[in-house]
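Figure 6 in text form: structure in, sequence out.
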């Protein structure tokens, strides 16, 4: 596999020239920018880069689209519902555009990388002035400059699977930060559009990742989540004799008091070597999100997942043996084309056996352009919904049991925000990423505290600072 290509210094310098050029155009206007992100954490990280470029141009960020001079939607194409929401939000801006024609409305992300959506935007959404795909993100300054100077619509979904290092970034304030370690996906699960819109896997060099981690720690972030469509594949394309387990050990050695999380892991590439690294590294949170999607080997084969229910069980056993207190979560798709009652029963059996702390459950949503969209699907939507509700009932019973087991425990928590209730006014997370509402004296957002769990519910633990 060829090593990933990095955008050259000359190419990046040209974009900084356009940043300065845009700043010159808008200097006297003091414009405001509004951004909204749909979908995954990688989209959130991409938006932070766009916000960083906008900030360098001189835009002030706002949370009110009505007062913005530049509005951007970073979109998701994983599920139809996400696309519908994005189109709905864009459509609602038509009145704003008529009232204020000078407003620039932009759309980027995975939806923008699909030709069918590009044509739909061109024909039916004239209020959109700028559209660019995932591969063109680093060229955003030059694209915006064209919109401002040429006074016409600009559409760009071209580009290669390159990595751009050194882009400005404007992160959300708080205790948590995203850190992308790789981009794209090589897995081509039959239900998933991601490889078609984000390209093939390419890994960032470890020294660049470590440099960014050190910057985050210096800026005061306490929880850093490493991002990739399949972090377990990290390094395969670099030719540097480093894998994800090795990267974890390298980042764990960075000085500071912080937690490292990561997502998402693919079971076909998870290994004892990874679990050894997690167990050995004190800063790597003992939390694992390992999607299994279905407990049926036949459905897994049709999904092109490249593992079996039996091999998945072995992975979980190994992880729990090495980290007895590990928190486990997973993804499940209910109603994949051809799923029988027996297939679904095997999924329920795996859930009951593993006893996850958290599940993200989805009804199958066909995505145009993926193989599964053409699969025969005889099961009715009503039956799929009944199965979905059965799964939720089983999982709720498991979660209630696992949450109740925390009663009276003393845990280290990271305070990360404010809660709605007056009795427990702060939110926090356990090392296993469980939500906690906490009370006590002298609590500050962004600090680690010791607390005792006073009560539990299905969705939240409640604690008092010690």
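Output sequence:
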């Amino acid at each position: 596999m060829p090593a990933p290509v990095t955008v050259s210094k000359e190419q990046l310098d040209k974009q900084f020239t356009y940043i300065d050029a845009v700043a010159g155009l808008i200097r006297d206007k003091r414009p405001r920018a509004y951004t909204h992100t749909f979908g995954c954490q990688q989209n959130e990280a991409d938006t932070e880069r766009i916000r960083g470029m906008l900030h360098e141009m001189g835009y002030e960020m706002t949370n009110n689209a009505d007062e913005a001079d530049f509005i951007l939607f970073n979109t998701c194409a994983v599920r139809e519902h996400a696309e519908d929401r994005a189109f709905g939000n864009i459509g609602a801006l038509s009145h704003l555009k008529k009232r204020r024609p000078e407003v620039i409305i932009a759309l980027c992300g995975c939806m923008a990388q699909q030709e069918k959506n590009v044509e739909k935007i061109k024909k039916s959404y004239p209020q959109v002035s700028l559209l660019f795909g995932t591969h063109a993100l680093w060229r955003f300054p030059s694209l915006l400059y064209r919109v401002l100077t040429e006074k016409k619509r600009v559409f760009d979904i071209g580009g290669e699977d390159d990595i751009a290092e050194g882009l400005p970034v404007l992160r959300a304030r708080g205790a948590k930060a995203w850190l992308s370690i790789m981009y794209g996906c090589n897995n081509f699960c039959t239900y998933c559009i991601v490889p078609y819109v984000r390209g093939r896997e390419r890994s960032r060099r470890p020294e660049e990742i470590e440099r960014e981690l050190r910057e985050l720690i210096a800026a005061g972030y306490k929880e850093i989540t490493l991002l990739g469509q399949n972090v377990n594949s990290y390094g395969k394309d670099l030719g540097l004799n480093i894998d994800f387990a090795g990267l974890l050990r390298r980042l764990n050695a960075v000085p500071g008091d912080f937690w490292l999380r990561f997502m998402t892991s693919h079971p076909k590439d998870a290994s004892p070597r990874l679990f050894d690294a997690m167990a050995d590294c004190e800063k790597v949170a003992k939390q694992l999100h390992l999607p299994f999607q279905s407990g049926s080997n036949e459905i897994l084969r049709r999904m092109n997942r490249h593992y079996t229910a039996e091999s998945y069980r072995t992975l979980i056993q190994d992880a729990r043996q090495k980290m007895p207190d590990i928190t486990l979560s997973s993804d499940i798709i209910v109603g994949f084309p051809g799923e029988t009652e027996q297939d679904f029963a095997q999924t329920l059996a795996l859930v009951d056996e593993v006893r996850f702390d958290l599940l993200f459950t989805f009804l199958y949503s066909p995505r145009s352009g993926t193989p599964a969209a053409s699969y025969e699907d005889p099961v009715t939507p009503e039956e799929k919904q009944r199965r979905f509700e059965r799964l939720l009932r089983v999982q709720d019973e498991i979660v209630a049991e696992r949450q109740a087991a925390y009663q009276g425990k003393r845990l280290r928590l990271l305070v990360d925000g404010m809660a709605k209730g007056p009795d427990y006014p702060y939110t926090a997370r356990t090392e296993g990423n469980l939500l906690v509402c906490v009370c006590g004296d002298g609590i500050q957002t962004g600090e680690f505290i010791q607390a005792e769990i006073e009560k539990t519910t299905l969705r939240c633990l409640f604690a008092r600072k010690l």
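Caption detail: The chain has three domains: 9-156, 176-404, 410-465.
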